[in-house]
Design goal:
By secondary structure, the protein is α+β, with helices and mostly antiparallel strands. The chain has two domains: 135 residues, no CATH class; 160 residues, Histidine kinase-like ATPase, C-terminal domain (Heat Shock Protein 90). It has nine helices and seven strands.
C-alpha cells in the first residue's frame, strides 16, 4: 500500500530528526554521571527556546514579515527575537540547574547561549527560505496547471459549436436534395451528438470511440456528396487499448471538407489512419486550387489552430504535426505517441 506523507507529517519528521541530531551532538561528550541531568537541561532549552524560535521564524516571520514588510524589517524582528530568547535561554539554564540540585555551571559562559540561539535562527532561516521557495514554486505550478486546464476547456468548448454548424449545413443540404435519406442522416447525427455530449467531457477516451465518431462523420459526408467527391478512408492496425484526447482528429477532416470541395474539379479527400503499437499516424489529403491556398493563408479558421494548440498543451513532446501544399494537394500529417 502506498503511503503519502502530508506536509504536517513531513514537518513533524523534520523536527524529530533535527532536534534528535541536536541532542546527540550536544550530549556526545558528556560523562555518564552527568548524562541524565544534561539531557533534561538540553531538552528544556530546546522545548522553551530553540523550538519556539525555529517555529516562530519559519511559520510567521518569513511568511508574514519578510514577504509583506521587506528584508530590513524581517532582519530586525529576528534580531529582537534572538535577544529576548537569549535572556530566556539564560534564565532556563540557571533555573533547571537549581531545580536539579547539581552543580553544572562550571565553564558556562553567557555568550554560549546566545551563540546557540543565533545558530538556531540561522538554521531556521535557511530551512524557512527553502520551504517558502518550494511552496511558491508549487503554487506557481498549480496556477500554471489551472491556466492550461482553463485554456484547454476553452478550446474544447469551441469545437462543439463549430462542428454543429458544419453538420447542420450538411443536414440542410441533404434534406433538400434527398429527403429519403433524412432518417439515416438523423441517426448518424444522433450518434455524433451523443458522442459530443457524453464523451468529450473526459480527459481521455478510447481511440476506438474516437475513430467510430470519425467514421460516422465521414459516412455523413459521403451521403451528402454521393459521387461528387471521391472520399477514401483507410484504417490499418488495432486501436484497442489505446486512449486519446477527444475530438482531436476531426478538425483535420473538417478542414479538408471545408477547403477541398466546392469549386474544385474532380475533388477528392483521402483519410488514412495507421496504428503501430502505441503510435498513431494520421494523414488527411484534399485537392486545392490557387484560390483555396489564398483563402487558407488568409484564414485557417478555428479547426487547425485549435488542434495545434491542444497538441502543444496535452502532447508537448510526443507529437509531430506538419502541413504542406504540393502538386495541387493540401496534406496534414500527424504522428502521435499514445503511450
Amino acid at each position: 500500500m502506498k503511503f503519502n506523507l502530508t506536509n504536517v507529517h513531513k514537518k513533524i519528521l523534520f523536527h524529530i530528526s533535527l532536534w534528535g541530531i541536536w541532542l546527540y551532538l550536544t550530549l556526545s561528550n558528556v560523562n555518564d554521571a552527568d548524562f541524565n541531568n544534561r539531557f533534561i537541561l538540553i531538552a528544556s532549552l530546546i522545548v522553551f527556546t530553540h523550538l519556539p524560535l525555529f517555529v516562530f521564524n519559519t511559520e510567521w516571520l518569513i511568511p508574514n514579515i519578510l514577504h509583506k514588510k521587506g528584508v530590513n524589517f524581517y532582519f530586525w524582528s529576528l534580531m529582537l527575537a534572538i535577544v529576548l530568547l537569549s535572556f530566556v535561554h539564560s534564565f532556563i539554564f540557571h533555573t533547571v540547574n537549581d531545580m536539579l540540585g547539581v552543580e553544572m555551571k562550571r565553564g558556562y559562559k553567557s555568550y554560549k547561549g546566545t551563540i546557540a540561539i543565533i545558530l538556531v535562527a540561522a538554521i531556521s532561516t535557511g530551512y524557512g527560505l527553502l520551504n517558502d521557495f518550494a511552496k511558491q514554486s508549487r503554487i506557481k505550478e498549480e496556477k500554471e496547471k489551472e491556466k492550461l486546464q482553463s485554456e484547454l476547456s476553452f478550446l474544447r468548448s469551441q469545437i462543439s459549436p463549430h462542428f454543429i454548424f458544419n453538420v447542420l449545413n450538411s443536414i440542410i443540404f441533404l434534406i433538400r436534395s434527398n429527403a429519403q435519406l433524412a432518417e439515416t442522416v438523423t441517426l448518424k447525427l444522433s450518434e455524433l451528438m451523443r458522442y459530443m455530449l457524453y464523451e468529450t467531457g473526459n480527459e481521455r477516451i478510447s481511440l476506438v470511440n474516437e475513430l467510430s465518431y470519425l467514421n460516422n462523420y465521414i459516412d455523413l459526408q459521403k451521403i451528402r456528396f454521393e459521387e461528387d467527391v471521391d472520399i477514401q478512408y483507410k484504417l490499418e492496425g488495432d486501436p484497442k487499448n489505446l486512449i486519446i484526447e477527444p475530438m482531436l482528429l476531426i478538425p483535420f477532416v473538417e478542414n479538408a471538407f471545408k477547403h477541398g470541395v466546392g469549386m474544385i474539379q474532380d475533388p477528392f479527400i483521402s483519410i488514412e489512419v495507421k496504428i503501430m503499437d502505441a503510435d498513431l499516424e494520421f494523414s488527411v489529403k484534399n485537392k486545392i486550387t490557387p484560390e483555396t491556398v489564398n483563402e487558407k493563408d488568409a484564414s485557417t479558421g478555428i479547426g487547425l489552430k485549435n488542434v495545434q494548440r491542444r497538441l502543444e498543451l496535452i502532447y508537448p513532446h510526443t507529437h509531430h504535426l506538419t502541413t504542406s501544399s504540393e502538386n495541387g494537394c493540401f496534406e496534414a500529417y500527424l504522428k502521435l505517441s499514445l503511450k
